[in-house]
Amino acid sequence: MKVGEKLLGRKVVRAYPPRGGIQLVRLEAVASFICSRCTQKKTARLAAVRGSTLLCNGCYGRVEASAVEAGQRPAATASPSAAVDTRPPSLRTEDLTQVVVEELDSGLPYSVVNTGLTVEWKFHVRAEHLLHGTCPVPAEMADRAAPQEPLDLKFLRGRHRIGILDQQKGIKLRTEGDLPLLTGLTWQPFVLPGTRVSVRWDTWRELRLAYTPLDKPVVFGGTVVRYAYDPKIMTRELAAFDARVDRVEELVLIALRELGYLDEKGRALLPREALLRNTSERAQSERPPVKKINGAIDRLLSRRILTWEEGGVNRAGMLHHPARRGDTPVPLLCYTPTLREAEREELRDDVGAAYSMSAHRVAGHLMRIGHLGKEASPEARAAYREDHKRAGLAGPHELPRGFTYVREHERGI
């Protein structure tokens, strides 16, 4: 496939070189499909094309890794008479600028249990859920609930001592589109991307959404976290809000956290060559020269905000950490989010955001949506232009690319 062609109704924005009869492509927006190898429904921007079938990014990497571990080249490039070459291939600089990183899950329900009387599931909140006031629903509920019937929701804080945080009525089930969703939710102010939610639906009755408190609240990358969470999602989707350094350093950190390989601790890793290219390409206004980006990386390394780790790249260009058998070793720049137990003063300052549901004003602010494959609406652009002019702020009055604008509003009950 080529850039500009369409797959699953989405435009192809990047096409990687075919390997072993399989080609990996990146779409302009997420799309749903059934992987022909694992037979699971996937929702992602990356998909691998093999003839008339599709593979998810994970299975694509596993197919390539299996070929390498077997001491073989991918089928389309192997020669029957060629000697087996088990040495890792050498990598050129241009190879490292275009490594492939497996995408996170899209916040789909998991651990689904259907007893006939109840349906239970879990999921991790994503920025898209917070932005649009939605909640993912498994097919086991969507097939039985009536879309036209409004639902009542109850938000719980609990594990040992269950407490009601909020109640909402008139929530609708939307079944059209790629994925069934509950719409019309108002997420509590303390809910962060990555927060784990347990949901229970008593058939034909209310839904209960529960957050699990941590035994001890923590500070993750500068943000107070009180409930069970996924560090990978939090690193990725809080990237634009945690960086508080000079402009070029901030661009470097955001690019690394939004595009890098994520491990179980929420560390983001990427070769320097890929970080240089992506930092430059993703700059919203004037692109900083490579010399300045290199200087920013060196400063971040000197302050230990970034460190060096060793990973590996397989023949498909898939990045791994740690390196796997058959991978070519590569040095990786690593961002490690700070993680420590929250101090009493931080919890006291944060208690209002964590527990208060009284009505309060939320100041107008920018929200990053570019990584979701979305663009701001004309209404958001007009609102930003108007508020920016009214405030008498310097600089262009146009909404930055990759962001939407949320006007000042009231939240709470």
Give helix % range.
Answer: 10-25%
Radius of gyration: 23 Å
Query: In one word, what is the shape?
Result: globular
Distance between the termini: 51 Å
Mean pLDDT: 81
Major sheet: order of its strands? Answer: 6-7-12-13-9-10-11-8
Compact overview of the structure:
This protein is α+β, with helices and mostly antiparallel strands and 413 residues long. It contains 11 helices and 25 strands.
Describe this structure in words.
Helix content is 24%, strand content 33%. With 413 residues, it is α+β, with helices and mostly antiparallel strands. It has an 8-stranded mixed β-sheet. A hairpin with a 2-residue loop joins strand 1 and strand 2. Helix 7 packs across helix 8.
What does the secondary structure layout of this molecule look like, with pairings?
Elements: E1 6-7, E2 10-15, E3 23-34, E4 41-50, E5 53-55, H1 57-69, H2 93-96, E6 110-114, E7 118-124, H3 127-132, E8 134-136, H4 139-142, E9 151-157, E10 163-174, E11 181-183, E12 196-202, E13 207-211, E14 213-220, E15 223-227, H5 231-237, H6 239-242, H7 247-259, E16 261-262, E17 268-270, H8 272-281, H9 290-302, E18 306-313, E19 319-320, E20 328-335, E21 339-341, H10 344-355, E22 360-362, E23 365-368, H11 378-390, E24 403-406, E25 409-411
Parallel strand pairs: 9-13
Antiparallel strand pairs: 1-2, 2-3, 3-4, 4-5, 6-7, 7-12, 8-11, 9-10, 10-11, 12-13, 14-15, 14-21, 16-17, 17-20, 18-19, 18-20, 22-25, 23-24
Helix pairs in contact: 7-8
